[in-house]
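Fill in residues.
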């Protein structure tokens, strides 16, 4: 008595399994599926860069000397000139709070992230206005797209590039940040001190942050000297030996102010000429005409008085649900044609094995398969010794509903 072979049928799940799995599928928000490297908190309300941990270092570099200065001023209130030292203390506290506020707004705000495309744009008409001979292949097909194309901005010809990652032509002044892995509007630079891209929507807060940091350094530096002279008189040696706290604060602020002060002056120059850091280093608009320059007053008005544009991507929106995979009817027909699951046939469902066809690789062939196929009217040509059944043109049983974009996957 021959021993029966114990095999399993590997095919798509049944209709009930599909309905059960989709019925318990929990929808997700866009920030949960975002392909960039950003970090999201508070349900997608706060958008940080991947190096947001550097904020702890920046916060300590600002907070430690500021807090030390405030404590030292608090001790001097009860000794001499209490009103003067009280006003100095209040000023230091206000500058410190403002500095931390602008730091938080800069690092936790969407800088102007551009949404990605699932498919590259159509190639028709794009090469009519481009002078580039470089081409990029569409990831989702064989369509070729020009690497760059030319557009007019304020009467000047500006070249925009195609982003292979986001599958789009970047708007003017936009660039792809390799750290955050996003295309960003009016990209200035990626600042490691705030752990975020500096771009269209957080650039005003960044300017306020570095400006208040410079003012705080100068404030602590100046009033540390004044307080030492008031307490110890004009004896420089006595001031150094008796008040090391003020001496350390003076040296620290003297070093730091060159960095933040120089950065502030440089960005004020960029604002007045309507440039970004990326454009200044790459295109050198000081040596050629700047297509974005509008004059000094209009440039200042554009930054400080214009309304900040709303974000393009609402990360708290629900992500669109992909179309369901219609494989239930195929599974039921396979069960009826070749036996239910748990029968003695082991098969593997494969798509794309033949041109537009549905191929069934028979792992353990049995004569009963041939009989079953003949009963179902599938033809003798499909029961040869190749151990494969190929239905050209995906000729499934007649009652299967077909859609144009049906994606059948083996589960």
């Amino acid at each position: 008595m021959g021993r029966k072979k114990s095999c399993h049928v590997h095919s798509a799940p049944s209709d009930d399994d599909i309905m059960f799995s989709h019925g318990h599928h929990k929808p997700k928000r866009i920030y949960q599926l975002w392909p960039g490297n950003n970090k999201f908190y508070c349900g997608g309300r706060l958008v940080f860069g991947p190096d947001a941990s550097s904020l702890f270092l920046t916060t300590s570099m600002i907070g430690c000397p500021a807090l030390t200065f405030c404590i030292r001023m608090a001790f001097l209130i009860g000794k001499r000139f209490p009103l003067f030292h009280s006003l100095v203390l209040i000023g230091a506290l206000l500058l410190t709070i403002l500095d931390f506020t602008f730091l938080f707004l800069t690092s936790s705000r969407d800088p102007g992230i551009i949404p990605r495309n699932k498919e590259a744009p159509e190639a028709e008409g794009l090469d009519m206005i481009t002078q580039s001979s470089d081409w990029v292949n569409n990831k989702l097909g064989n369509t070729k797209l020009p690497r760059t194309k030319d557009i007019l901005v304020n009467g000047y010809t500006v070249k925009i590039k195609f982003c292979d990652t986001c599958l789009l032509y970047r708007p003017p002044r936009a660039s792809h940040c390799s750290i955050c892995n996003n295309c960003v509007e009016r990209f200035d630079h990626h600042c490691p001190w705030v752990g975020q891209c500096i771009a269209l929507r957080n650039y005003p807060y960044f300017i306020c942050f570095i400006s208040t940091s410079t003012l705080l350094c100068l404030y602590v530096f100046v009033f540390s000297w004044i307080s030492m002279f008031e307490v110890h008189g004009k004896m420089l040696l006595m001031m150094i030996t008796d008040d090391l706290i003020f001496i350390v604060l003076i040296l620290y602020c003297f070093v730091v102010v060159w960095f933040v002060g120089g950065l502030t002056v440089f960005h004020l120059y960029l604002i007045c000429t309507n440039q970004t850091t990326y454009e200044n280093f790459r295109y050198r608009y000081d040596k050629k005409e700047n297509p974005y320059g509008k004059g000094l007053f209009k440039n200042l008005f554009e930054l400080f008085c214009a309304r900040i544009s709303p974000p393009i991507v609402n990360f708290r929106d629900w992500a669109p649900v992909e179309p369901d995979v219609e494989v239930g009817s195929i599974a039921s027909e396979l069960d009826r044609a070749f036996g239910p699951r748990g029968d003695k046939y082991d098969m593997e469902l494969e798509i794309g094995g033949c041109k537009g066809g549905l191929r069934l690789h028979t792992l353990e062939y049995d004569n009963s398969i041939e009989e079953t196929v003949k009963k179902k009217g599938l033809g003798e040509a499909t029961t040869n010794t190749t151990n494969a059944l190929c239905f050209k043109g995906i000729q499934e049983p007649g009652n299967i509903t077909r859609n144009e974009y049906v994606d059948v996957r083996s589960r």
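Residues 1-12, 14-23, 125-133, 324-411 have pLDDT under 50 and may be disordered.
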